[in-house]
Amino acid sequence: xxxxxxxxxxxxxxxxxxxxxxxxxxxxxxxxxxxxxxxxxxxxxxxxxxxxxxxxxxxxxxxxxxxxxxxxxxxxxxxxxxxxxxxxxxxxxxxxxxxxxxxxxxxxxxxxxxxxxxxxxxxxxxxxxxxxxxxxxxxxxxxxxxxxxxxxxxxxxxxxxxxxxxxxxxxxxxxxxxxxxxxxxxxxxxxxxxxxxxxxxxxxxxx
Length: 207
Description:
The chain crosses the membrane at residues 37-55, 97-118, 130-152, 158-179. Keywords: Membrane, Transmembrane, Transmembrane helix. The chain has helices at residues 2-8, 35-44, 47-63, 74-97, 99-119, 126-152, 157-180, 197-206; strands spanning 13-14, 22-23. It is mainly α. It has a domain at 90-184 and 194-206.
């Protein structure tokens, strides 16, 4: 939703160097920085209030679920929400300036978040913590490989795609091996609850 709201008022292109010659990304017939544009842009900033309420509501919703067994640290939830918004912001701004800059900032933020969740347990369930760490490592792998591809600009996309898939496969295999070495899972599953086949297989391999 935040991405959509930012896209409504985003002006990345113009017909000249003058500020008022810019036009909306989604409507090249609508000019930016005139009275009509400002009348649309100012109310759009209500999303800031929505963002603050959403960040506050996520931990509150969790605390209100008495039947929720796996819970996350409220501070980690708020930091993750702020990170998500920041990533959307740099995607909308830095990507237009430089894809290499955008990818570098993305990697720095994701790597910082990885260090944070490795030093501070996010969940009260060890397998959930490990899954989050492994998923974050996958994101770093994809981002790092994309950065190398942008810097080298070799054009051999199929080679990078093969390396990407191979790296993800290795990360998944390593994660399953590590999770199988954990103590038996004590999470109780309700009888009669049906799981999809691939989720059941993943649970069996990680248990």
